[in-house]
Amino acid sequence: MTQPSRWIGLMPAAVLTALSGLTPLAFGQGANRLPAELIYRDWLKPPFKWAPVEKGSGAVRELPDAAPAWRDSAKSTIDDAKALVERHDVLGLLWLEGDGSVLFEAYKQGAAATDRMIGYSLSKSATSVAIGQALCDGLLASMDAPAERHADALKGTAYGAATIKELLTMSSAGKVPEAAGQPVAGWTTALLRTQSRTIREGLVEFGSGGKDASKRGQFEYKNLDAYALGFAGAGASKEPFHNYFAKAVWQKIGAEADAAWLIDRNGDTATAEGFGARLRDWGRFALYVRDAVKVDAGQSNCLSRYLQEATTTQISNDSDRISKDFRGYGYMFWSENWRVKEPSFWMTGLGGQRIGVDLKSGRTLVLISNAEDFMPAVYRVFDTWARQ
Questions:
Q1: What are phi and psi of 299, to 5 degrees?
Q2: Rg for the chain (alpha carbons), in Å?
Q3: Average pLDDT for residues 283-296, to the nearest whole number?
Q4: Can you give the pLDDT at residue 303?
Q5: What is the pLDDT of residues 125-166, one digit of tens each?
Q6: What is the C-alpha separation between 64 and 37, in angstroms, rounded?
Q7: Helices then strands (H, E): number in the chain?
Q8: Distance from C-alpha of 346 to C-alpha of 374, rounded to nearest angstrom
Q9: What are phi and psi of 134, to 5 degrees?
Q10: Residue 95 in 3-state DSSP?
Q11: What is the rounded CA–CA span in Å between residue 170 and residue 93?
């Protein structure tokens, strides 16, 4: 296991700048860096507000070490993983073989296995899984029903007029975002750090149409689409979204620890970017999705069918501003990574968070980082490993 590196002080202004959107923060572009401790510790301290996501009393899914013989045969792959950690701004890196065993695990920059690491927009994929379960539970009417059917706060907005499917595919007619999914630069800081804004206000203000509105049915990466899904899910389940998520998803994956979800001052869940968990539990979540996607046709169920659709292209990524490594977008999962030869699906988050699953071998990569500038190297190593 890689030893943590020494962390050098964090000025409050650095945190503000990291969340403000004042710099270009499009995923996969530029050398944007976030403060390391923000990701694995400070996001759970005041002034941030968060709610626990309880793991429940179910059995923990074991993640055994890969067999010694296999580790010996995979020495070059392990060397590649070590090089990623040594050369780049990794906080946690976990590689899981197709059988769920751990081939490689490392932590750096002060992060540890017991830290709950925020995943930023990995949270959108977590939101999607819960929405899929709500559809299968019959709580949400259908993929084609308008979201406002389930939440009064969405009525009269572009997000409420959008169907559940349109929100999942980021194709509502809400405002065209200015920075990394934010409707205006600095909005996430105002929402979650200074708490001078609320999600409810944003849904009304930025869902009112006008010359800067997105074209309905066209992909435009928007955090407020994910927030709207959270409101629809909460309204349908008649409880806070993070509570429903705990029961519908987190308590089914075999998590080893409680997770956490950021909330605004009203207690509404920040479904676009606010979920965090231990690195291994992020891995268990990925395996839960993978297992549902890869289930045999004869054993498929409602959720597996939903996730099979969710992790494949439902709408083209024609944006020239965000995630240009991916040609397709599913239901808050990314697809068609042109840097990876074998079919795979991905969850991505700001600052270098990546979860990738190879659909042929089932091999799974979980990366929590605080920089975007080495993602081509991550995809290259993943591609080599997936094809072994």
A1: -110, 5
A2: 19
A3: 95
A4: 97
A5: 999 999 999 999 999 999 999 999 999 999 999 999 999 999
A6: 28
A7: 14, 12
A8: 16
A9: -65, -35
A10: strand
A11: 29
